Each structure stands twice: as structure tokens, then as C-alpha cells.
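Example record

One chain of 90 residues, shown exactly as stored in the release files.
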Amino acid sequence: MFDWFGGNPDFTPDDAARLRRIEWKLNLILKHLGIDYREGDGELPTSARARADAGDKIGAIKAYREATGAGLAEAKRAVESYLGRARADA
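Predicted C-alpha cells for this chain:
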């Protein structure tokens, strides 16, 4: 999440510290609820995965954005990461 704000001159060290505290608290909540969440675990929504597996990278990015509400850069990273793992597994 820091990379979203790192280039913004209005993002201060105090903001970074506050963001770290929020993420720490969220991790505690997830742990308390027994939710095992790993960022970037490689799971794409079904529609995006199907398009990526069919070789339609742009369609996969679009489907990812529609399913998750993510921005273009995040969707592109997720799809490319998935495709990279798929190639490595082949």
C-alpha cells in the first residue's frame, strides 16, 4: 500500500506510521477471526482466470477490475503475476 502514496509529497512519515498501525490492527482482527489472508496469493476471480488461461490478457485485466474494483495498475500486476506463475508451473 505504501507504493500508492510513496510518490505523493503530501504523504508524510506520520502518515506512513499511521498506515502501518492500521495494517497491524487489521492483521490482528484477521488473526482473531481465524481468517488466513495472504496478499497476492495468486487467486484471480473466475472470470479473469478464464480469460487469462485463454490468452486474453487485456480481457483478464478488465474482468479483474470489474470483479474487484481494483485500479488498472493493480489489476495488471495481479494478472501478470498469475500468468507468470502459470508459465512457471507448465
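Notes: Helices lie at 2-5, 13-33, 46-53, 57-68, 72-89.
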